[in-house]
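>> received
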Amino acid sequence: MWNCRTPGIPDELFLQKDDVIGPTKEEIRVLSISKARLREGSVVADVGCGTGGLTVEAALQVTATGKVFAIDEDAEAVKLTAENASRFGVQQTVQLMLGKAPEALSNLPQLDAVLVGGSHALREVIRAVHKKLKKNGRIVINAILLETGYAALDEVRKLGFSEVDVITVSVAKGKEVNTGTMMLARNPITIVSATKV
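>> returned
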């Protein structure tokens, strides 16, 4: 189904449901995975996995020698992530966890990277991630709301993360219409990434 080494699986290849958030759009997944700086054998958590787009992309990067913990508080999201992990052949690399962050992070091993979607308890999640990250571990936070991006940036700075990077990405995708190609804008996303010192 996806035999490329690079991230960027087309969105339409993922199983999706209207009542489950995701997948994170492919261009945002590409950037998020890049900012996470994953390697073969990395141990990763995807907090708020939704349909599992980032989970699958991360699992493909860390290979069978690594591990991706896919966490969501929505049972339907966890089920859909399991289906997508199986669909892309990474089910052995992915461990599914039904639970609410930050509590769900407490039983995880030390991590090389954590991918975080927006969260009502974002600051608490970032603090829990800070405790679980190995030295030089990476955090990548995707924010659709300005307030979420601000809270993420503020918290990583307060915790003393280094290499703090903030980008806002605006993507427009082409759609064929009768007279040509119309560019349709997607929601801008702010990505905050940083390294634990």
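>> DSSP finds five helices and nine strands in the chain.
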